[in-house]
């Protein structure tokens, strides 16, 4: 193929797919790209998805286009590897997704009425997904929840599945009671394996509390991470103004600076 498409700034998807094909060309491609397979690329795919979420969280709309492009490139990369192995290609991926969306939205693309509430449409969606799992011989309630998901996200998905068949606490009160119970069991644990197990149990129940309160625990933790980073940077700035670094300070002094940063944020947000 001519290089015209490669250098066409308006080449769209055909251009991107041709670039990927050329990067994987056994004779003239990039050595690094040629060494990759599904497993080696998967961590980058996850990373790019989080960078998309981060740009959205920060309302960094000028960055979002590039981050979405990075994520799209991951799909193109996987599709190219699959095509080389004779498994499927990018068009097969698009067709599969299109078929799924049409099947799961009969109120839009079929004969079902679209005069339904969002809650009813969600219930219908889950019924259709359950039928799809049954067709794949996934009989267990928890079958099909991907093992490769981030642990916190997978915990929420497992809990949602169990809740659909009635295995759930009726309110947040019972969940909070369970958190207290798990925290006490963690306090009483002694050997490292038991401590790790009880810590995992506590995190699992915390994820359940987030679900009951309609909170995305991943987003909440990202927000907490951002807040911690922001406030700690203020501690560093205050110390740097005196020619010092955190290692030259005490916990008590840094805690006081933390509280001052916290107060400034509260006053600013009033």
TrEMBL record:
Q: Which domain of life is it from?
A: Bacteria
Q: What class of enzyme is it?
A: hydrolase
What processes does the entry annotate via GO biological process terms?
A: dATP catabolic process; dGTP catabolic process; dTTP catabolic process; dUTP catabolic process; response to stress; TTP catabolic process; UTP catabolic process
InterPro entries (UniProt xref): MazG-like_dom, NTP-PPase_MazG-like_C, NTP-PPase_MazG-like_N, NTP_PyrPHydrolase_MazG, PRib-ATP_PPHydrolase-like
Cited CDD domains: NTP-PPase_MazG_Cterm, NTP-PPase_MazG_Nterm
Domain named NTP pyrophosphohydrolase MazG-like: residues: 36-109
Its recorded reaction(s) are: ATP + H2O = AMP + diphosphate + H(+)
Entry GO MF terms: ATP diphosphatase activity
Pfam families in UniProt: MazG, PRA-PH
Enzyme Commission number(s) from the entry: 3.6.1.8
Record's family?
Belongs to the nucleoside triphosphate pyrophosphohydrolase family.
Identification of the protein by name: Nucleoside triphosphate pyrophosphohydrolase
Upper lineage:
Bacteria, Pseudomonadati, Pseudomonadota, Alphaproteobacteria, Rhodobacterales
